[in-house]
Design brief:
Strand content: under 5%
Mean pLDDT: 83
InterPro entries: Cyclin (IPR039361), Cyclin-like_dom (IPR013763), Cyclin-like_sf (IPR036915), Cyclin_N (IPR006671), Cyclins_cyclin-box (IPR048258)
Low-confidence stretches: none
Protein name: G1/S-specific cyclin-D2-like
Function: Essential for the control of the cell cycle at the G2/M (mitosis) transition.
CATH architecture of the domain at 48-153: Orthogonal Bundle
Order of helices and strands: HHHHHHHHH
Radius of gyration: 20 Å
Keywords: Cell cycle, Cell division, Cyclin, Cytoplasm, Nucleus, Phosphoprotein, Ubl conjugation
Subcellular location: Cytoplasm; Nucleus
CATH class of the domain at 48-153: Mainly Alpha
Structural class: mainly alpha
Helix content: 55-70%
CATH superfamily of the domain at 48-153: Cyclin-like
Largest sheet: none
Length: 186
């Protein structure tokens, strides 16, 4: 008897629950919870002395390129950026550690959102081996501690289906302007 495995590389995603999309409380809760995961002020003015905004932009571009090349789930990049910003808002970081921090944030986000997360070894390769897997794993614990292990952050992607549903509903009732007004009144 021969067993054949007919696996495919495509990932089938769960459909959205229409009951959650219809309930205005879900969107309101997302808006309320989102505030807990946003830095309250610009960390460049207070916490960060060595890191400048252009450096954050460079590491963000690198992180996006890695996520795209690795075909990560669409939630990985915004979640990783949320971790990066929250960490930078509380921990003074040297610019020589910024790419390591970005790699750790992608590592954590992919573990939360991917069925096959990025590996430490693969992320080290993307840094041209400027960091070691052990270093990444050590920083993982530091980042988790500073984020208080609170990784289920609300990101812009969480709002997309709610916004689209409201826009479609508003378009059917008399135009886009009414849909936008309805969306803003939440």
């Amino acid at each position: 008897m021969e067993l054949l495995c007919l696996e495919m590389d495509t990932i089938i995603r769960a459909r959205s629950d229409p009951n959650l999309l219809r309930d205005d409380r879900v969107l309101q809760n997302l808006l309320t919870i989102e505030e807990r995961f946003l830095p309250q002020y610009s960390y460049f003015k207070g916490v960060q002395k060595d890191i400048q905004p252009f450096m954050r932009r460079m590491v963000a571009t690198w992180m996006l390129e890695v996520c795209e090349e690795q075909k990560c789930e669409e939630e990985v990049f915004p979640l990783a950026m949320n971790y990066l910003d929250r960490f930078l808002a509380v921990v003074p970081t040297k610019k020589c550690n910024l790419q390591l921090l970005g790699a750790v944030c992608m590592f954590l986000a992919s573990k939360l959102k991917e069925t096959r997360p990025l590996t430490a070894e693969k992320l080290c390769i993307y840094t041209d081996n400027s960091i070691r897997p052990q270093e990444l794993l050590e920083w993982e614990l530091v980042v988790l501690g500073k984020l208080k292990w609170n990784l289920a952050a609300v990101t812009p992607n969480d709002f997309i289906e709610h916004i689209m549903r409201r826009l479609k509903r508003g378009m059917g009732r008399g135009g886009g302007r009414q849909a936008i007004v309805s969306l803003l009144s939440v």
